[in-house]
Amino acid sequence: MVPLTRRQIYRRRRAAVFGTLAAVLATAIYLPLTLLAPLDAATAVVAEQPSATQAAAELDFPGYGASAIGALDIPGVLAQDGQEKALPIASITKVVTALVALDAKPLGVDEAGPSIEMTAADAALYDRYLAQNGSVVPVAAGLAFTQRELLELTLVKSANNYAGSLAIWSTGSLEAFRSAAAAWLAEHGLENTVVVEPTGLSADNRARASDLVELGRIALRDPVVREIVGTSRLEMHDLGQLRNTNALLGDLGVDGIKTGTLGTAANLLFSSTFAVGEEEVTVVGVVLGGPGPDHGELNRGILALLKTAQAGFREVVVAEPGQVFASYRTEWGQRADAVAAEEARIVTWSDSPVTTLVDASPLAVTARGAEVGSVIATAGDRQVEVALELSRAITDPGASWRLTNPVALLD
């Protein structure tokens, strides 16, 4: 064996030194990069949810005139039947009269409002409407009623003379009321409603049933009107006890709104509030052109309609505690689910579909029970949201996996 020259020995020693140094440097760089590198977040895979479609509601409409039904918090009409043209609305007109008066002279729910003294002109209204076979309540010049009391006489007792007095006091004259009513109807999108005077004695006061559902919604959103139309009877100074003309108050949750009778036609704009599961639903409906002038048959028809309408609302369970809405799988093989933190229910009408939107965040190391997103269920205009939490912890894969999977970490 030929002895190595001094130069060769030097070169070998230098290679060993630099090789060792390179290994040390590589290790010094590699270990921190792999052991301390951030982990890629796992993306949620949303689970397919079963359909929550319900059977369609079967409504028992009266079968005469025009009918429509809706709900306080659902825009538009849920269902309608009968004539689509505008029909005489009779004393349902007084709802418009009250709302126009409150638009001109706002009143808080706990306020009585100003005192309004009756004059000879108010007494003349009594004679005028009595001559037209209208519903009237005695009045005399010098009597004083608050704004709230005039509203009660208009909406509870349906007194035509007091409705006229309210309209004149709030707008200035019957002619001014007619203009104010037209402007108010246009402002609220009631394009198929015409009101030419404040009592409903004119057959020219007309509306489509669909418009009256919206009118009912507007009325119930006014706390003063809602409270008054739900009053079955009241004691009025100088006049005694006044009973609401709406005989259905209290039946099947009926809490409003206004009767209307003209000739042989009976009308009712009604509302009913009832429980569906843990929620309350308020139905708003109307029937025009029912058999009259007695409201007996009309009322029976409305109760039959209400029973089927109430049955058409259902509470649907959209999430149960621990229900899986999304899943995670990490690159290092751990699995976990995004599950509902609690039960969630939503009220839906008839066969309206219930949709769910899952929003689950990407994640890496995360503790068990951490909130990782939410699921939003929608049915019509109703929404319910429930938090999603992690079913089990996702932990760091550890040094062994990190050191043997540099590509996954450093890619």
Structural class: alpha+beta
Distance between the termini: 49 Å
Outline the low-pLDDT stretches.
21-26
Give the overall pLDDT as a whole number.
91
Residues in helices, as a percent range: 25-40%
Helical segment count: 11
Shape: elongated
Number of extended strands: 20
Question: For the CA atoms, what is the radius of gyration?
Answer: 36 Å
The description of the largest β-sheet is: 6 strands, antiparallel
* % residues in beta strands: 25-35%
**How would you write the strand order of the largest sheet?**
1-15-16-20-19-18
Describe this structure in words.
The structure is a single chain. The two termini are 49 Å apart. With 411 residues, this protein is an alpha+beta fold. Strands 1-15-16-20-19-18 form a six-stranded antiparallel sheet, with no helix packed on it. The protein has a five-stranded antiparallel sheet with strand order 3-2-13-12-11, with helices on both faces. It has helices at 6-36, 93-104, 120-131, 147-155, 160-171, 174-187, 209-221, 223-229, 296-311, 399-404, 406-410; strands spanning 45-46, 66-71, 74-82, 87-88, 115-117, 144-146, 193-194, 206-207, 233-236, 240-243, 254-262, 265-276, 279-291, 313-319, 324-329, 335-340, 344-349, 355-360, 371-379, 382-390. It contains eleven helices and 20 strands. Helix 5 (160-171) crosses helix 6.
